Structures are given as C-alpha cells and as structure tokens.
Amino acid sequence: MLARRLLLACAVLVVPAALLLAPIAILTGTADAPAGASTASARLPPPARKDLVAIFGPRVKKFGLRVTRAALVNPENKRSAKGRHLAIYVEPTGEYTPQEYIDGTVDVSRVFLPYVFRRWKGLRSFDVCQEPHPEVDNRHPPAPETQVFVTRSANAKIDWATVDVAALVARSKAEVIAAGATRPVKFSLYVTAHLQNTPAYSSAVGDPTVGQTPATTPAYG
What we know:
The chain is an alpha+beta fold. The chain has one domain. Helix content is 31%, strand content 17%. It contains eight helices and seven strands; from the N terminus they run E-H-H-E-E-H-H-E-E-H-H-E-H-H-E. Strands 2-3-4-5-6 form a five-stranded mixed β-sheet, sandwiched between helices. A two-stranded antiparallel sheet has the order 1-7. The model is unreliable at 1-13, 15-42 and 210-217 (pLDDT under 50).
C-alpha cells in the first residue's frame, strides 16, 4: 500500500506506476496537510495494530475478509503514532473470486472511505490493499491484488456512495495525467495484471491496460 514498497514482478498498474510512488512526497509535503495543524495536535487513529483491527475487523468480515496488517506511517515509511498515512491490508478468509476482488475496489474501500478522513482530521492519506488468500500466496507480505490510495483532498471529490469501478479507473488514469512529472498523484487505483485479464474486469471497466510498470507495496507488520 505506500511508497518504498516491495516490487511486484508480475503485477500491472491500471495507470503508470509513478502514481504509487506519490505517497512519500505527499507525506513529506504540505499539500494535503490541514492548515495550521501540527503533528502533536492532529487527531489520528490509534497506532496499535490490535486497536485498528478491533475497529475495522468487524466491518470487513461481511465481505469474507480479515485485517492482516494495519499501520500509521510516518514520512520515513515506518510505523509511528504520529504518522499521517493509514495503511490497511485485508485478505480473504475463504474462497475469493476475481469478481469479488474487482467489486472490492469499491465495496471494501467504502468500509474506510470517507469514514477515516471524517473521524481522524489529522490523516493526510490512506490506502487499502486486498491481498490473496495465504493458500494462494503465503509470502509476508504477499503481492496485493488491488490497492486504492487516496489523499484527503482527493477523497473530498469522490462520492463513495455512488462511485463504481469504472469511475475509479477513469479517475486514476486522469489523475496520473494531471500530475505528470510536476507533483505526486492524489488518487490511484491498482489492479494486478491477472485480474485485469478477467471477464469480471472487462465487464466493469472494458479492455485491460497492460504493459505498464509494476506496483510496489510496503511491508508494515
């Protein structure tokens, strides 16, 4: 889910990988920081994994998922009680189909968005990864199947109650074009290559985008 991530050799971005290098610059910059806010006074989620699991575990259970990792991350991409980025990782507890992964880019994201930004005013950015079942990929951490990354300002422009997968893909592509080489992206959607090559993805989005740079994700425990 964030910069300085492990390279995924076989994954493909919905949009160029430069967008997934953005979180470092966002966390170290001030573009999405609340005006006048300091780290000491920011309202942030609890830093302990168990506390984050207690909050979000029951919310993702209905999708057949569990929270595996959760972290507040500082500009050095390390766990920190004062970190301004919240990273959440979920994995299936049983069989999980390509359709469920594709649908989850919206449905699972709605568990967290816009809730996390409304509840914790100190957060600058957030991402959630859907990971494979450990029987499919037992590495720690595994390569994510999907990732949604969003900053506070970008989140305010998305109606999570009505948005669909195609709209998120279009927004992600448009954002990387708008950001160019001048600034980090503020929103991105990543879908791994094999999911893009499924009927579920084509039905939701259209033809898959292929041949782009692999994504990366951090190994927050």
